[in-house]
């Protein structure tokens, strides 16, 4: 795998250890060669390190297994998930999930990421539909903020949306960025 193939949540081998890419940024300084700056989370220790890779550098991808699961509940420390094939329940530390907690609904289907045969984190669909539970009124002519307002979706997360979105509407949200995509008809 090359640096151009990086994506959030990808598992790689670095210095003999397995790391998960938590963020990455391509940098082209103008003078000198381009590189990709990353934040990597150690799959065993949870320690986060910042590493820069030269553009086009070959990086070994870690052996990772993906299993469809159902999110059941969280107890404040761990998520409880159920494997859709074996119906086994297992726990995953909330710290390993990070910002994705803002977009998980009870009973929703997620993909559990297994590293070295142990569940490490989850992946959500890139775009998901949520109901708006609280939306302030959008006043005509109120475009000083670029014609957007902040609403609360059913998970409790806050999303910036256009002024025409109201309470009860269903919206599609990009779960990687937290951005409003469109009004949903689902």
Tell me what you see in this structure.
With 186 residues, the protein is mainly β. It has 3 domains: 3-54, Roll (SH3 type barrels), CATH 2.30.30.30; 64-123, Beta Barrel (OB fold (Dihydrolipoamide Acetyltransferase, E2P)); 127-183, Beta Barrel (OB fold (Dihydrolipoamide Acetyltransferase, E2P)). 0% of the residues lie in helices and 50% in strands. It has strands spanning 11-14, 17-27, 35-42, 48-54, 64-74, 78-83, 89-93, 109-115, 118-123, 127-134, 148-153, 158-162, 170-174, 180-183. The strands form 3 sheets. It has a 5-stranded antiparallel beta sheet, with no helix packed on it. The protein has a 5-stranded antiparallel beta sheet with strand order 12-11-10-13-14, with no helix packed on it. Strands 1-2-3-4 form a 4-stranded antiparallel beta sheet, with no helix packed on it. A hairpin with a 5-residue loop joins strand 13 and strand 14. The radius of gyration is 19 Å and the shape is flat. The relative contact order is 0.13.
């Amino acid at each position: 795998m090359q640096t151009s193939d990086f994506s959030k949540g990808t598992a790689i081998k670095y210095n003999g250890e397995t790391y998960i890419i938590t963020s990455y940024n391509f940098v082209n300084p103008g003078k000198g060669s381009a590189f990709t700056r990353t934040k990597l989370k150690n799959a065993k220790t949870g320690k986060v390190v910042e590493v820069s890779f030269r553009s086009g550098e070959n990086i070994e991808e870690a052996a990772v297994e993906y299993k469809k699961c159902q999110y059941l509940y969280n107890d404040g420390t761990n998520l409880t998930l159920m494997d859709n094939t074996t119906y086994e329940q297992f726990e995953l530390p909330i710290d390993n999930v990070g910002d994705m907690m803002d977009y998980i609904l009870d009973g929703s289907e997620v993909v559990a990421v297994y590293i070295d045969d142990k569940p490490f984190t989850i992946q959500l669909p890139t775009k998901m539909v949520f109901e708006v539970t609280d939306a302030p009124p959008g006043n005509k002519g109120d475009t000083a903020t670029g014609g957007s307002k902040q609403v609360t979706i059913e998970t409790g997360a806050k999303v910036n949306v256009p002024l025409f979105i109201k309470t009860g509407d269903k919206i599609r949200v990009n779960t990687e960025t937290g951005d409003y995509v469109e009004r949903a008809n689902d």
